[in-house]
Design goal:
Elements lengths: L11 H36 L19 E2 L6 E7 L4 H19 L4 E7 L5 H16 L4 H10 L11 H10 L6 H9 L4 H13 L7 E4 L2 E3 L5 H14 L1
Helix pairs in contact: 3-4, 3-6, 5-6
Length: about 240
């Protein structure tokens, strides 16, 4: 009876070829796994709340926020802004008037403002001033809002002092107590309210100003009025 023969020994080149095949298969699996992970991440980013129309809308409270227009309007827009921000000035002077004429004055849109101070320390000073004006007289907020942006200075300088802001309020004839306004600014009376608004922005992905939320849908193409109108019309139709 013949003895059972063992497996033939492989040459060095054959063993090397088999090892290279194993490495290629491992690399292919790694590539496919990487592609799958990237696809999942991209999908999550796309579906995240407020990606200019994509995904689930953010649920942001408007409590304690100044509003212009009918608060029962079918479309509610929240603007996160910094009074030192040049882009916010552009929005206020170039986009807001169109928005007001086309939608706000017709009762179709209500615009809310939330402070998102981040440019400089005096961004907070301006935010405290605006919130103080609002708390004294809600109707005085929007004229003050306009006055600050109309008199905005270089963002690289600390121009938003309490003295300057009170001077602007005085020139705007807001009909408020200017001494109380100065005390509220210097004493940071409404710091917690401003901080709450800022935190709300952070939690909803705000990282620049102005950032708008149209019925909770994030919109940061602030200079594209046609795109904003399209989103507003979509939201009107969804009601």
């Amino acid at each position: 009876m013949s003895k059972k023969q063992g497996k033939p020994k492989l040459s060095y080149s054959e063993r090397k070829k088999i090892e290279e095949q194993k490495q290629r298969k491992s690399m292919q699996r790694l590539i496919w796994i990487t592609i799958a992970v990237v696809a999942v991440i991209v999908g999550l980013i796309w579906l995240a709340p407020g990606q200019n129309g994509g995904g689930q809308a953010a649920n942001i409270s408007t409590e304690g926020l100044p509003v212009t227009g009918n608060s029962d309007a079918p479309v509610k827009i929240i603007e996160y802004g910094d009074f030192k921000c040049p882009s916010c000035q552009y929005f206020t002077q170039q986009i807001y008037p169109k928005l007001k004429a086309d939608y706000i004055d017709k009762g179709e849109v209500a615009l809310y403002f939330a402070n998102f101070p981040f440019i400089g320390k005096d961004s907070f000073t301006a935010a405290y001033a605006a919130q103080a004006v609002y708390r004294q007289n809600s109707e005085a907020f929007w004229p003050f809002y306009k006055s600050i942006y109309d008199n905005q200075r270089d963002e690289r300088t600390a121009w938003a002092t309490s003295e300057y802001l009170v001077e602007l309020a005085s020139k705007a004839n807001l009909g408020i107590n200017l001494e109380q306004l100065k005390k509220d600014i210097d004493g940071e009376t409404y710091k917690s309210e401003v901080q709450k608004q800022y935190n709300s922005g952070v939690s909803n992905g705000v990282n620049s100003t102005p950032t708008l939320f149209v019925n909770g849908v994030k919109f940061d193409k602030f200079s594209d009025y046609n795109a904003l109108k399209q989103l507003i019309e979509q939201q009107k139709g969804a009601k």
